[in-house]
Each structure stands twice: as C-alpha cells, then as structure tokens.
C-alpha cells in the first residue's frame, strides 16, 4: 500500500495492490454468497482432486453472490494437508487475475480462519470483495502424525493430559474422550448422554444433501458401535472426509452498489482466541481440549455483537466428537458448567427445543474435511438466516452462531444476522 499526494502535497488516497483505491475502515461486513461440495469419504469420487473441489464450491459461491471472479480482490484459501501453494492451484480453477491469494493452515479451524482473514481485509479497508475457500483431500483412517523430525504441535498438550489420563492413540479421540470422562467423573453425565448427541446429529444429517452420512441410527446402535476410545464409539466421532466450502464477503458499500441487501448476511461479531495460560494451569482435560479458548471466544463475540446466547436460534458448533459438543454447550452458556447433559435429556438442542444445534448434522455426520469445515458451517448458517435451508430449516431464525476449533490451538467464533435486522 502507498499514499498518493496531489501537486499541493495533500494526501488524497490510499492505494493497494494493482493500483486499487482502498476504502476507509469498513464497520460492516456481509456474506453475499456461499457454496459447498457434498462431503464424501476419502477417494469416493474418482478424479475429484482439490482443484475440482474448489471449482465446485467456489463457482457456487460466486453464482450465489451474482458476481464474476473478476470482482474478487483477494482470496484466502485454507487447507491442512498439502504442499505450500495448493491454494493458488485450487483457486486458479476460478480465474487467474493476479490478485493476492494466501494459504491458510490453522488445524481444524482452518476454514474459519480463512473466513476471519477475509473479514479483516474488508474491515481494514484493504478490499471491498473477498473470497474465502477451504478444502481438504484426506487419507482414509485416523489422522496421522506429520513430520517426525521435530516436536509435534500437540506434544505439550498431550504431555499435560498424560498426567491426568493414561495416554492412548489416536491423539484426537484421546484428548476429547478424556475431557468427556472427566465430565462424567465431576458432574455425573453418562455415556448415554454423549451417545444421544451422536444420535441427534446423525438424525439431522438425514435432511442434508451435502452430508457424508445420511443414515439414522437408534441410541442403542450408537452405543453398540465400535469403541474408538473408552466412552466414544465410532458413531460419535467425525470421519475423515473430502470436500470444499466457499464464501464471498463484501463491504456495505459493495452490497449497496450491487443491490445485494436482500441476500446479504452480516457478520456482527467474530474473533480468534488461541490457547490461554489456563489451558495448562487449570489442570483439567477440558481446558486442554479447548474449553477455555471457546469460552473466551464466545464472551468476546457476545460483547461485540450485543447478543446473548438466548438471542440465537441456531448454532453450528465443532462436534468433532460428541463430548466436545456437550462441553461447548457449557462454554457458551447454553447450560451452567456441569449441566450440559440436562439439555440433552430435555431435547433442548434439536428441532422444537430452545436451540437447534448442528442442523446440518455437524462434523459427526456431515463430515469433517478439515480445511472446509468452517466454511461449510458458514454456508449452513447463511442458508438458515435466508430461510433457504430446505429440510434442515429452523423456524424463525434471526441470529446464528458458529464455532470452529483446532487444537494446538485456535477457537474461531462468528455471529451472524440478516442485513435487514
């Protein structure tokens, strides 16, 4: 960026890449288009590589916004597995206009981090129309450890957790499963309560054509499924998945100039919170699994938006394992600490309850292609707020909340409202 001076020496404009005049600080940011691919088990679609995934989701998002790729000024492309310029290669399927494209990796919160960076670009006046894309092409089976010649990012977390619960593999179900066991020991929740979350989310996904799984299971089938970690059965765990999601964001000026107010959804609060000192000093499995990050991120977003948890009707949250959904209930204040299981008993988090949590089926059943998850959550909530979520639609949605977490760690929370609210 540089500043242009006129002949009298007065500053007249900030200029960005390509000579684009930068707008002043933008107070409001809107999602004007979303799109996603169907999530699939790894390798299910022959010849469907990450460039094809992004072409699919990105084209849908542009069509939804009613604009061409030539209107996009920046792209933030999120993925966890792949080489360093996969973002450029993927986005080139949409166009090659020389604009900045950044590659984003923030573990399982990667998609929402790409969304966050896109919002920040607009708020800061760097651009008026930005795209966030997220994608993942995954291997079958449990997540594997990366390079073995250096410390693993979660080693500090796992060593601390090993002092509380005996170490087990794979790491992810161990960390979130231990947090669930801790909740049972401290507050009296039971395996059946966690299994009910799995049952709910599989039932919700039956209505979602984008979901990896659309099978409905009984509570007993959830409980009887293969045990992954004591407490967590396979049907309470998110699967590895292939897929992509995308969102087009714009400033208020862009929305008004292009007559997009009827479809625009405002982001009224958003933050990223990384690990706090309490992650390691609290001495709990819940803190090591991100509880404190989530709680603080929620607090910040409620303050930014002026909304409380009771003002939201629908929530897409990071149920990588059923235990984390229950912990997030308490972190956000849907229930007091130690009482999240009461929401499950009362059916307070499904259709007809106080909130509908994960109407898409969540990560457990919709699938979890790491880089795409946050943008799939964004897509679902935009559809909910527009009233176009079809069989997944929740009644009378005026505000929606998104939660995406990656251990190691970052929690991204986003609040949405219709522009006309």
UniProtKB/TrEMBL annotation:
Its EC number is 2.3.1.176. One of its GO terms (molecular function) is lipid binding. Residues 29-215 form the Thiolase N-terminal domain. PANTHER family: ACETYL-COA C-ACETYLTRANSFERASE, NON-SPECIFIC LIPID-TRANSFER PROTEIN-LIKE 2. SUPFAM superfamilies: Thiolase-like. GO terms for biological process: lipid transport. InterPro entries: Thiolase (IPR002155), Thiolase-like (IPR016039), Thiolase_acyl_enz_int_AS (IPR020615), Thiolase_C_2 (IPR055140), Thiolase_CS (IPR020613), Thiolase_N (IPR020616). Keywords: Acyltransferase, Lipid transport, Lipid-binding, Peroxisome, Transferase, Transport. It is found in: Peroxisome. It comes from the Bacteria. Residues 291-411 form the Thiolase C-terminal domain. This is propanoyl-CoA C-acyltransferase. Its main location: other.
């Amino acid at each position: 960026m540089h500043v242009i001076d006129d002949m009298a020496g007065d500053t007249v404009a900030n200029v960005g890449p390509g000579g684009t005049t930068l707008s002043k600080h933008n107070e409001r940011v809107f999602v004007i288009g979303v799109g996603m691919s169907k999530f699939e088990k790894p390798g299910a679609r022959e010849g469907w590589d990450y460039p094809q995934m992004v072409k699919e989701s990105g084209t849908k998002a542009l069509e939804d916004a009613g604009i061409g790729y030539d209107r996009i000024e920046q792209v933030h492309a999120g993925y966890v597995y792949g080489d360093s310029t996969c973002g450029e290669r993927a986005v080139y399927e949409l166009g090659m206009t020389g604009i900045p494209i950044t590659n984003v990796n923030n573990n399982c919160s990667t998609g929402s981090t790409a969304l966050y960076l896109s919002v920040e670009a607009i708020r800061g006046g760097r651009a008026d129309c930005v795209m966030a894309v997220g994608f993942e092409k995954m291997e079958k089976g449990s997540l594997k450890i990366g390079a073995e010649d250096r410390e693993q990012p979660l080693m500090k977390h796992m060593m601390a957790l090993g002092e509380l619960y005996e170490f087990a593999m794979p790491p992810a179900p161990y960390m979130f499963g231990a947090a669930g066991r801790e909740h049972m020991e401290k507050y009296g929740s039971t395996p059946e309560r966690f299994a009910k979350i799995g049952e709910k989310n599989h039932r919700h996904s039956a209505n979602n054509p984008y979901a990896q799984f659309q099978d409905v299971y009984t509570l007993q089938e959830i409980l009887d499924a293969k045990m992954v970690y004591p407490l967590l059965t396979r049907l309470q765990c998110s699967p590895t998945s292939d897929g992509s999601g995308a969102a087009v964001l714009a400033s208020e000026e862009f929305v008004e100039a292009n007559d997009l107010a009827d479809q625009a959804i405002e982001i009224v609060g958003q933050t990223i919170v990384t690990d706090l000192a309490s992650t390691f000093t609290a001495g709990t499995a819940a803190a090591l699994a991100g509880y404190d990050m989530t709680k603080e991120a929620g607090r910040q977003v409620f303050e930014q938006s002026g909304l409380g948890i009771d003002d939201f009707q629908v929530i897409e949250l990071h149920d990588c394992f059923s235990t984390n959904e229950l912990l997030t209930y308490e972190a956000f204040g849907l229930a007091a600490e130690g009482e999240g299981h009461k929401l499950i008993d009362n059916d307070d988090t499904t259709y007809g309850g106080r909130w509908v949590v994960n109407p898409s089926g969540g990560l457990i059943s919709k699938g979890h292609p790491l880089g795409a998850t946050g943008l799939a959550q964004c897509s679902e909530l935009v559809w909910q707020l527009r009233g176009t979520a079809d069989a997944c639609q929740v009644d009378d949605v005026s505000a929606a909340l998104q939660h995406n977490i990656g251990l190691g760690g970052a929690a991204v929370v986003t609040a949405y409202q219709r522009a006309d609210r």
